[in-house]
Amino acid sequence: MPVALSPLTAEQADLARRFRELMLPHLDAAYNLARYLLRDPVAAEDVAQDAFLRAFRAFEGYRGGDPKAWILAIVRNCCHTWAKASASDLMVPLEGTGAIQGDDPGDASEHTAGLVDPADSPETAVVRHDEIATMRELIEDLPFPFRETLILRELEELSYHEIAETTGTPIGTVMSRLARARHLLAEAWRRRTADGEET
Fold first, then answer.
1. What share of residues in the chain are helix, strand, coil (percent, to 5)?
2. Angle CA 53–59–64, to nearest 5
3. Which of 1.10.1270.20, 1.10.3210.10, 3.40.50.10540, 1.10.10.10 is the CATH number of 119-199?
4. Tens-digit pLDDT profile for the chain (199 aa)?
């Protein structure tokens, strides 16, 4: 026997509409952050969905401010919860190891869509694709606080204030973490490219 759902009240419908307008535009950013923090695209999908569910349940308490920073703070908290739960799990995944666990190297075009210029020659496109894959790998190898800050600033384009709000850290800490992340990334890039030239 089908279950009859009660219609939404005008207040509930307005709340759902506001959530769609304010939060859904940031779904890609939520997934992107979760993917870099967890280094697992499947887990990132689950965590992003869980974060949006939690955000919707808590949306009545949303009092304004930057919606992207608000939703990314929830994503970040969900990532921490997932990481703690998986750390206590004794199972070891058997998938191959790529730059991002679970990625199929043959399916890398999904991760570089929009970054490789269609006007490039095939040779240039391959070089650019390799550089993008290398940069993703180097970012993922950064220690967590630096990786998180770099992703929020450079990929998600949050301001220092928004990053501080999202991570719950002082702006000075955000600035120093970002400077350190950029330095570590530049050093890792120099080492990687120097190794590549030697081979």
1. 75, 0, 25
2. 135
3. 1.10.10.10
4. 565 566 778 888 888 999 999 999 999 999 999 999 998 999 999 999 999 999 999 998 888 889 999 999 999 999 999 988 887 654 444 343 344 434 443 344 444 445 556 676 777 777 777 888 888 899 999 999 999 999 999 989 999 999 999 999 999 999 999 999 999 999 999 998 887 666 5
